Amino acid sequence: MKWTYETRAGLAEIVSVPGGCALLFDGQVLGQYISPIVAAGELANGICHWPSAGDPTKMGIPEDLSEWQRVP
Questions:
Q1: What is the pLDDT of residues 11-39, one digit of tens each?
Q2: Which end of the chain is more exposed for a tag (fewer CB within 10 A), N or C?
């Protein structure tokens, strides 16, 4: 399972991995999390490692995973 959110600065992705999920931005791994909900919240609030594109809190990334596109 995967979730994506397109921003002006690049593509945010949350990808299922064994034991949880990985958070990526334009292919750059920002961290691994226990759940996609936690990953989306951490990125939206800038709590994760920041992507090379800059401050994720200024990119309009929603904390609510239902606003991301779910990719089977």
A1: 999 999 999 999 999 999 999 999 999 99
A2: C
Do the beta carbons of residue 36 and residue 69 sit within 8 Å?
Answer: no
Q: How far apart are the C-alpha atoms of 61 and 39, rounded to whole Å? A: 12
Locus of tokens 């990808």 = 15
Mean pLDDT, range 52-71, rounded to an integer: 96
Rounded CA gap, 32 and 38, in Å?
10
Our CA dihedral for 17, 31, 5, 43, rounded to 10 degrees, sits at 140
3-state secondary structure of 44: helix
Supply 43's token pair.
């990125």
pTM (predicted TM-score): 0.93
**DSSP conformational letter for 55:** -
